[in-house]
Specification:
The chain is mostly helical and about 130 residues long. Helix content is about 65%, strand content about 5%. Helix 3 (about 35-45) crosses helix 4. The relative contact order is 0.09.
Length: about 130
């Protein structure tokens, strides 16, 4: 990557490389190695802007932040939304949620029964009070 970017100021010592690696792990603990590989390829392709012959830890971390916000977050949000919709539209929704609590039967009975309307709610009491 250093040769392709033609960086003059780059990670040169083992300490700088170790610091960069530790920083990546600390700042982005959920990134997988495959994702880091993809992000580095995107850096090489110039998708995160020009680096102007400088490739230090700060630039790499900034590119990984941009990768997470511009590429990874929308994918994770879309996947989570699809899973939520699948869960809500599944036929056994009440079984999945309520069965561990032993409440599936109660839920089924409540869903099938119509609520009783007695006509003695707060509106009826107010109407009777105003009729006097």
């Amino acid at each position: 990557m250093v040769k392709e970017i033609d960086a003059n100021k780059t990670l040169s010592s083992n300490e700088e490389i170790e610091f960069c690696c530790r920083s990546i792990i600390e700042e982005h603990p959920t990134l997988k190695l495959d994702e880091i590989y993809v992000a580095f390829n995107m850096i090489r392709q110039g998708k995160f802007g020009k680096l102007y012959e400088r490739l230090k830890s700060a630039e790499i971390l900034d590119c990984l932040r941009r990768y997470e916000s511009e590429v990874r977050s929308p994918i994770l949000e879309r996947d989570a939304e699809m899973k939520r919709k699948e869960f809500l539209h599944s036929s056994d929704y009440s079984q999945v949620v309520l069965e561990p609590l032993g409440l599936a039967g109660i839920f089924d009975n409540l869903a099938k029964s119509e609520p009783e309307v007695k006509g003695e709610g707060i509106g009826s009491r107010l109407r009777k009070k105003n009729e006097w």
